[in-house]
Design brief:
Structural class of chain A: alpha/beta
Oligomer: heterodimer
Largest sheet of chain B: none
Radius of gyration of chain B: 21 Å
Largest sheet of chain A: 6 strands, mixed
Number of strands of chain B: 0
CATH class of one domain in chain A: Alpha Beta
Strand content of chain B: under 5%
Number of helices of chain A: 10
Helix content of chain A: 40-55%
Low-confidence stretches of chain A: none
Mean pLDDT of chain A: 87
Distance between the termini of chain B: 48 Å
Largest interface: A-B, 22 and 12 residues
Chain lengths: 266, 267
Amino acid sequence: MPIISIRDLVVEYEGRRVLDGLNLDIERGETMVLLGGSGSGKSTLLRHIIGLERPKSGSVSVKGIDITRCSRAETKTVRRSIGVAFQSAALFNSMSVAENVALLLREHTKLAPSIIDLMVWMKLAVVGLADFGKMLPQELSGGMKKRAAVARALALDPEILVLDEPSAGLDPIVAAELDELILLLKEALHMTVIVVTHELPSAFRIADRIAMLYQGAFSSVGTKDEVRASQNPRVRQFLDRIPASAATAQAVGAHLERYLQNQEAN
Amino acid sequence: MATVLESVGRKALNRLDYVGSLNIQLWATLRAMGTALPFVGNRYRWRATVRQMLEIGVDALPMVGLMAICSGFILAMQGASELRRFGALHYVIELVAVGFTRELGPLLTAIAVSGRSGSAFAAEIGTMKVTEEIDSLRVMDLEPVEFLLAPKYLAAIIAVPSLSVISNFCGILAGGLFMFFSTHLGLMLYFHYVLTTIQLRDVIAGLLKSLVFATIIAHVGCLEGFRVRGGPDAVGRSTTTAVVRSTFLVIIADAVFTTIFYFTGKM
């Protein structure tokens, strides 16, 4: 049974259809990359998978519980089995990095403070931030913030790890480090990982399967090789980096000429 | 004609929507308030509450105290310049004592707190909204209402009435100093007069008002924060709106309460 299954998901904002009848199954233990350009609806899809928003119709089931229409108690169990690292890291700025990671353990478990300290240190060590626990989020670099957010997402040992644009805004070396971290986590902890990204090298490095979104619908879903071999024009355009509406020099020149003529006429 | 009706209707609906949101938020907070209480609640919430009380109350103390002293002098001098003509200078004592406990103490405190803390609430929550921290709280199964609002509200309803009491004391003290310097009335004697003038009813009315003001400031501030959509500029706007709306609502509420007390007091 898939750990997450999305059925006929339709999302509309003010009459504009953002997601149009999506169907997707994510199996336990696989890394699924949601790939797509800006405005393709990938972040919206992510917000529905983690239950932050309710769709217009359709369902999202996590571990067999339909999170679009479940009780508060069920929401609680689902939320505790999902760890999320947001695009902006979303660390709490008034707390140190270690306190950020400890927050969930303190709030949702009855563990002794010494054990919590140990667990926090372990999570930080996994992401390579063991020496930075006492620092405040604003003192960290972009890549360190992202890693701290991953450590916080791992706090309660979730079955599903969700990462929103982990490598956005990072230099290639740091982004590659983050990819290796994701691979390590998957191998060591046997997690289901969902990654939203638009970075091709990163996607093909970490993915088991890739789902490509274009204008609110999947244009291709499959393994890395299947997507790479796809002949779908939308997929090809994205993979081969072909601009949609190229601004040619002639067109710009014509625009300028027309503008100047209008100016002269006045 | 239709467009006029339309815009009036839309404006009215927006106002109703705002009041409705405030009410929903108030009830949700009251339900979550148990967790912020000491001993029975969650100790991290209580710690957050204490921190908030320090920020709302203790940090505002110098400002509120000075404002009250100045207003006490102003009230006494303005009153004295008129009352002296009737040879009724001793009524200044009553004017200052009753004026402060019933009205000026709670109102001045509310305006100061709305400027300091109402805007701070809106900025804090608004920023958290923009940086996805609110979303982050929700996916971590920590309800923002319980985590952020309950400690702030509890702190406000403890700190604001306490500040009002101090403000009353400072204002009345200023009145006493004025009387001492203008008529050589001893301070002890002045306080004796003050205590015979003020009734328990006045004190309770003042505290009740300041409880309501605290509710308005905390909830308007937080609601403005939660309504932030977009980027950092929206946070700036929300802090301004928070101060303007909470000050406005505080004065409206004050008018309503004073009217009620005026008419029930006669009977």
